[in-house]
Amino acid sequence: MAWMILRRMLSAVGVLLLASIVIFVVIAVSGDPLADLRDRQPPVPPSVIQAEEQRLGLDLPLHERYLNWVGGLFQGDLGPSTIATRDIGAELTDRIGVTLRLVVVAVVIALILALIAGTVSGLRQRRFPDLVLTPMTFVMLALPSFWMAVLFKQWGIYFNEQVGASVFATVGANSVPPPQGFVPFLLDSAAHLVLPTLVLILVHFAAWSRYQRTAIAESLAGDHVRFAVLKGLSRGRVVRSYVVRPALVPIITVVALDLPVLLSGAVITETVFQWRGMGGFLLESINLRDGNAVLAWLLIAAFAVVVFNLIADLLYAIVDPRVRYGN
Amino acid sequence: MATDTVPTDEPATGGNGRGRVILRRFRRHKLGVAGLAVLVLLALVAVVVPLVWPYGHGEITPDLSQPPSAAHPMGTDTLGRDLFAQTLRGLQQSLLIATTVTVVACLIGVTLGVIAGYFGRFVDAAVMRLVDLTLTLPTIAIAAFLGSVVPTGGVNWLALSLVLGVLMWTPVSRLVRGIVLSLRSLPFVDAARVMGAGNLQIMTRHLIPNVADHIIVAATLLFGTAILAESGLSFLGFGVQPPDTSLGLLVSNAQSAVLTRPWLFYFPGLLIVVIVLAVNYAGEGLRDAANPKAALANPLRTARRRRDADTPPDDTPRGVLDVRGLTVDFGDQRVVKGVDLHIDDGEVLALVGESGSGKSVTALSVVGLLPPDAVGGGSVRFDGRELTGLNFSQWREYRGRRIAVILQDPSTTLNPVLTIATQFKDSMRLAGPLPADHRDRIVALLDGVAIKDPARLLDSYPHQLSGGMRQRIAIALAMVHDPDLIIADEPTTALDVTVQAQVMSTLALARERTGAAMLFITHDLSLVAGIADQVAVMRAGEVVEHADVDTVFYRPRHEYTRSLLALAPSLALAPASRSAAADIEEDS
């Protein structure tokens, strides 16, 4: 078990290292961050451009730039921004919390709902709840998240106008300024969370509940279930220990693999609801041609994905003894 | 090609035949056909209608912000542009980009997947690391960044498609790799290699055609994802750029108009929903057509029964098991045609027949577990009581306690996530709360099936044990409640020949100790001699001969029995002896 964790961690570090090289090279070769400065009218004196190149390390060869950048990472320095006053690290730490709140709440709720709906659907295929749930998930799978986000936001606004009170907060992650005291702050956060999380939940609920339905259907058709029934076990015991438990394994991988999609979805949701989270940071950085900021964002995303996969591996080992004992 | 003459069982028989079968199955999937029809229709509209439509997508008309009307079926935007023309343009863009993305992603995915699966080892490891790497990158972020660095004038649709394609190939390659991995050890690949085919030839001529149907399904689903990715990027401003337009861009422009000029928001948005829904249903239809799952079994449900007017007479001789006029139908095909079987107390009846003779379906009917698409008929009496028509909880009075079953494949019959002890305890709880000495009782049961040092494996999981061990554990599980009848359905078929003999003697011994009657189902006559009292020979759903074991072996009456006997190796007729406890060796 310990050996397995160590092996997975080493492989995770390897993937992360490789990812850092790839994204560094892609970002470094795709465009000149100083293009705006060079094109400026009237022209900027060459000495200014040179100083800027030096500050950003653009005058060095690629591999030296990479090593400097990685070296900086270990000292908590994410590299200079094209905007001299911007501190990438400080700004990102502020924003991670905002995005994390959105993603974690959405993942937890979507997963719980998907497990319940998928299991019920799988156990009662082509009968009552499944006959409604299956077409419903198909429609949800086809809904573009940006369209849903805009729709919910506008409906929220319309609802607020009709009621004459702001029930749903449609702008930002918190009111400005945030209310004082713990309970009011929590309520304020919740009001802001409802609509954006709903979008993310619907997008992922649909896909995950489909996977869970398939897993249950396959488990149900397995020999071990037939054997359990023939042993004379009760229906509840068969469903719980022989159908559902072995079927919990596949969904773990699916959720872990979906994390990048979740982050992409968060970018869209945050944009529509104007949260100052990671998504907004990415889009601003892209527009500013701030290579190091985009790099930092991608690195954090890659890190999150790798960590999630590691967690998935561990959960796997808990649910499935075949993994635990290194089969 | 030379390999065509070699009788190797290549799964895809000559491309065309299989394609036609899939097509026929697909046509029966109504929603899939509807989805495909909608897609074809939309593609036609995207190509034809813009040629005849009076307005261009960038053309400014004097009608500003008009709701839908006869002249502008989808209304106009604030600049007076015709929304229908813009939506058509968006549809063109979406379909064009999504098609290109799908082609690019499939090319990369299939190439890498086949190579990884075929060569395995280092190549496979390298490709899978590449997949891991690609999966760590959120598509939208990379695509947005690359989209932004293209010089002004907007992203070219081809560049956008290439970027998305390069980021979206991973599911295809995983799928293809998995299938190729399972295909490459099949005889037809070896045969091709022996015939002198090179690696490239094997991959392109033998492997890719065999994964073609899976690729088509994956491509369809990828197409839907590509539509969503493209419109999402355009929505964020990193995809298609004005003055050109796309569905995502149209939705983006209409963000603040949802309540005031709703047509601007709903038409392009709902069109995306319709496209993706159609794609997904078409994909689902294709998937079902390519790998039909014959109505997946559900042992929790009771199968349908034919209503029989004529209940069999009550003068039937009272044995442990008495089967009269048993029939099983799948659709209009009758696979069991009025089978009669009789087993007396403590007697062993061997039900023998080739695969497809209906013997396993007969066994399933006896324990009430026919697949959901089967209809059973006739009478099954156990100890004088009718079993047919019982519901799940009525069945529980018999299953496990009075009728125990041993299934064919020990690698799948035990629950992979529960320990051996837990699976015994589940069975033991049927008779009330667990006794304090239940572990000793399990050890005794395992001891009874010749497992050495049983205490050691109480807390093991099934995957840690060999096939022979697992089948012995299944036998021990069957013995928990001292059943009156054991039904063993080909209990040794999935095992190695050496292990077979040991498991057979274990089974014989365990049965002898409890004195239970047994229905022993096999295709192998050589196993029958040592264990059976009576033999029933089944062929094409009928019992052609039912007699005691000596008669069947020495004076067979039916032609078919004779041919079966001729096939059985005479050596094996000296079988696992009933008192062969001495040569039972632990096989792990």
From TrEMBL, chain A:
The keyword Magnesium does not apply. GO terms for cellular component: plasma membrane. It is a multi-pass membrane protein. Pfam families: BPD_transp_1 (PF00528), BPD_transp_1_N (PF19300). GO terms for biological process: transmembrane transport. PROSITE patterns: ABC_TM1. This is Peptide/nickel transport system permease protein. It comes from Stackebrandtia albiflava.
From TrEMBL, chain B:
GO terms for cellular component: plasma membrane. The keyword Cytoplasm does not apply. SUPFAM superfamilies: MetI-like, P-loop containing nucleoside triphosphate hydrolases. Gene3D superfamilies: MetI-like (1.10.3720.10), P-loop containing nucleotide triphosphate hydrolases (3.40.50.300). It is a multi-pass membrane protein; Peripheral membrane protein. CDD domains: ABC_NikE_OppD_transporters (cd03257), TM_PBP2 (cd06261). This is Peptide/nickel transport system ATP-binding protein/peptide/nickel transport system permease protein. It comes from Stackebrandtia albiflava.
